[in-house]
Amino acid sequence: MKALVKEKPEAGLVLADVPMPETGPNDVLIKTLRTGICGTDLHIRAWDGWAQENIAAPRIIGHEFVGEVVEVGGSVNTQDVAVGNLVSGEGHLVCGHCRNCQAGRRHLCRNTVGLGVGRDGAFAEYLVLPASNVWVHRNPSALDLDVAAIFDPFGNAVHTALSFDLVGEDVLITGAGPIGVMAAAVAKHAGARKVAITDVSPYRLDLARSVGVDLAINVAESSVAEAQTKLGLREGFDVGLEMSGRPEALREMLANMTNGGRIAMLGLPSEDFAIDFGRLVTSMITLKGIYGREMFETWYQMSVLLEGGLDLSPVITGRYGYREFDAAFDEAAGGRCGKIILDWSTEK
């Protein structure tokens, strides 16, 4: 089969012929239909410092996907997942034995292995995944395959946005990348009163406007404090969703929260940085770290949001056949885009 492989410890990727993966008794074999390119994949392609520390070449990369089940292992309960099901997959594979796993808090497993990072991933014509990591789309005829392919990052957005009650609240989102824009769409759909988002990219701010944010702020030109005035806020934002990993973004968010405000932080900083802990303490602000998705409550929430009319189509801005992966990765790395999709169902 064809697969997109980090073949050597150097920059670049190769579309290679590789053996079909073996299906174990608790696994399912999935024919890949669509995949989404993630920032992690860009790091691996560039072979930057993070990739050098976390990837053992050769490795089939990728973790955002949708596909069709073509084989199930002998121990798999076919009432849960069966041949012919349209599925996506939870890309965090957990140990099942640590305290958090045994308590049902699998998203907190300290032994997590990442699909496409610690084991071969989804950028291939077929992949094998434990049945326990498979999410079956129960209403496939109503689901766009491109949207199904990005359930993994959509889950990051949902997990972050729904960490706190949003109904009637004023929400500040820092970082208008694809996940930040999806979080903005979720916040509006979930009943937030006002949603503001910040970035320095005019393209991404326009993308955020397309999903209905109340205010898109170019922080190279104006401040969040000025945004409060434009929105008619008197005491600051109630909920903050930090998606950028930028020190200045979190600092400005803290400075513009109301007393008792709540912040969910998904953005991963590249280095340590200082914040105003005095402000955090005296204003009694909650700061919560977010990583991945809750298994599988977030997945249920994603499906329900889409069934309820949430539209993610504006976030998907590029579509390529898998053989055009270089062009797809170049567009994704350029920053003037939303989510980029690779189609594995054709020979284009």
From TrEMBL:
Residues 24-135 form the Alcohol dehydrogenase-like N-terminal domain. The record marks D152 as: Important for catalytic activity for the proton relay mechanism but does not participate directly in the coordination of zinc atom. Keywords: Cytoplasm, Metal-binding, NAD, Oxidoreductase, Zinc. InterPro entries: ADH-like_C, ADH-like_N, ADH_Zn_CS, GroES-like_sf, L-Threonine_3-DHase, NAD(P)-bd_dom_sf, Zn_alcohol_dh. Gene3D superfamilies: Medium-chain alcohol dehydrogenases, catalytic domain, NAD(P)-binding Rossmann-like Domain. One of its GO terms (molecular function) is zinc ion binding. Binds 2 Zn(2+) ions per subunit. Pathway: Amino-acid degradation; L-threonine degradation via oxydo-reductase pathway; glycine from L-threonine: step 1/2; Metabolic intermediate biosynthesis; 2-deoxystreptamine biosynthesis; 2-deoxystreptamine from D-glucose 6-phosphate: step 3/4. GO terms for biological process: L-threonine catabolic process to glycine. Residues 178-305 form the Alcohol dehydrogenase-like C-terminal domain. Its EC number is 1.1.1.103. Zn(2+) 1 binds at C38, H63, E64. Zn(2+) 2 binds at C95, C98, C101, C109. It catalyses: 2-deoxy-scyllo-inosamine + NAD(+) = 3-amino-2,3-dideoxy-scyllo-inosose + NADH + H(+); L-threonine + NAD(+) = (2S)-2-amino-3-oxobutanoate + NADH + H(+); 2-deoxy-scyllo-inosamine + NADP(+) = 3-amino-2,3-dideoxy-scyllo-inosose + NADPH + H(+). Its main location: cytoplasm. NAD(+) binds at I179, D199, R204, L266, G267, L268, I290, Y291. GO terms for cellular component: cytoplasm. Catalyzes the NAD(+)-dependent oxidation of L-threonine to 2-amino-3-ketobutyrate. This is L-threonine 3-dehydrogenase. It comes from Mangrovactinospora gilvigrisea.
